[in-house]
Design goal:
This protein is of the alpha+beta class and 431 residues long. Helix content is 44%, strand content 28%. The protein contains 13 helices and 16 strands. Helix 10 packs antiparallel against helix 11. The longest helix is centred in the N-terminal third of the chain and has 28 residues. It is elongated.
């Protein structure tokens, strides 16, 4: 800011007289004999009682901007841009825009910087309009406040203040025009995971044939493309290649066993199919304005939880223990609000005993007491886990879960059992 004001200071470094009193923000005026200089957000003035320093913020915005603009002596475009930014930051938006237009016309090289500052002026003016509208609403002038919010949205639709204005109107039960009554609701994108599951099922049945492998790799991505989701198709293709090949490579390098390698490859492929169906096979959410949100939400497209009848979640987890470490995926299916079934697939690393294999599959039962503290839920669980080297472990755990409004989940647990003591952390998404 000091550098910007420094440019402005060059414009009125020489003393000069003012023909009229200087208007201040509080409605009063100040009789000034001379303006001596301007620097560091201060006007240095000579008055009848002596020298006086007045902050820019205390001067009426238009008067301050006129003072800075009127004393430019053959200004450079950069000086005009600096003065425009100073004017806008003190509430003189129209003069700031005029100065930016002059800067753009004066120098082609300064045009990009002028456009950036113009976007900043828009944001500042939108924020000022939002503050005025909220002040009107707080004073009980609801109709003028809604009109101001609608005007803000119309003039500056892409600013953060416009987003807040839409939220304010939505909270009052009105649309962006400030007149139409209703609310915005977010409709979840339709889930079409059953289509990818059908394709994957056909691929499994034809696995011995080349067409089966091609169906596994390219079938689901084609489904995503037909639904207009090329980004999901690319992610699907990546999952289907990385997980089985990565799992097989990890198993082979740690065991040199063909059985373990094939098992890890198959589990990686099954994990990719499951993740694809639950995480990727859905259209984008839509935000819709309606005067009957309950009816619209009741007709919302189905999600995985809609088909299964209960909430489901998918989590990535990592677990460090005294005997081995695991990292993988766990899936939760709520049988009741208090009881969930949690199957899991994981890769083992850092095993300290030879009877632990590179891949593990588990089946857990998790209890979630009805008593909750804020968004946190205590959990009590048990897990039966089989590692593909012939060992089965039984563990009990005590932990917590937290789920935010966006359905992002995070949790942790301490477990004890035949696999020793372990500390687990998981994060994921609920459906």
């Amino acid at each position: 800011m000091a550098a910007l004001v420094g440019l402005a200071a060059l414009t009125i470094a020489a003393p000069h007289a003012l023909a009229d009193p200087l208007p201040l923000r509080d409605g009063t005026t100040l009789d000034v004999d001379q303006v001596l200089a301007a620097d560091d957000d201060l006007l240095h003035l000579q008055t009848a009682t002596g020298q006086q320093r007045v902050p820019f913020a205390e001067v009426a915005p238009d008067a301050l901007c006129a003072l800075l603009r009127g004393r430019l002596d053959r200004p450079l475009a950069a000086q005009r841009i600096s003065v425009a930014r100073t004017c806008a930051r003190h509430g003189a938006f129209a003069p700031a825009r005029a100065e930016l237009q002059l800067a753009r016309a004066q120098s082609h090289s300064a045009a990009d910087q002028a456009r950036r500052v113009l976007a900043e002026v828009d944001r500042l003016e939108a924020a000022a309009l939002l503050a005025q509208a909220r002040a009107s609403h707080a004073a009980g002038r609801s109709d003028p406040a809604r009109a101001q919010l609608a005007h803000l949205i119309e003039r500056f639709p892409d600013t953060p203040a416009a987003d807040e204005a839409r939220a304010d109107l939505d909270a009052q039960g009105f649309g962006p025009d400030g007149v139409t009554q209703g609310r915005f609701v977010t409709l979840p994108g339709a889930w079409y995971g059953w289509e990818t599951l059908i394709v994957d099922g056909a691929s499994i049945l034809t696995a011995p044939l080349i067409v089966g492998a091609g169906g596994y790799v390219f079938g689901a991505p084609i489904v995503h493309i037909t639904h207009g989701n090329p980004g999901h198709a690319a992610a699907s293709l990546g999952l289907r290649l990385v997980l089985p090949l990565g799992g097989g490579a990890l198993a082979y390098t740690t065991t040199r066993s063909g059985y373990s390698t094939l098992t890890a490859f198959a589990l990686g492929a099954l994990t990719a199919m499951t993740l694809d169906s639950l995480l990727l096979a859905h259209d984008d959410d839509q935000r819709v304005f309606t005067d009957d949100p309950d009816s619209l939400l009741s007709r919302a497209p189905a999600s995985p939880s809609g088909y299964l009848g209960r909430p489901v979640h998918v989590d990535l987890f990592a677990r460090a223990g005294t005997r081995n470490h695991l990292a993988g995926l766990q899936f939760g299916y709520a049988v009741t609000p208090e009881v969930a079934i949690v199957p899991s697939l994981a890769a083992a690393t850092g095993s300290r005993r030879r009877d632990y294999g590179p891949v593990a599959a588990g089946l857990g039962l998790q209890l979630r007491p009805a008593a909750r503290v804020s968004s946190f839920t205590p959990t009590l669980g048990g897990t039966l886990e089989y590692e593909f080297a012939g060992r089965t472990d039984l563990n009990g755990s005590l932990g917590f879960e937290w789920q935010g409004r966006s359905r992002f989940r995070v949790g942790g647990a301490v477990a004890f059992g035949t696999s020793g003591a372990t500390l687990a952390l998981h994060l994921g998404h609920a459906y």
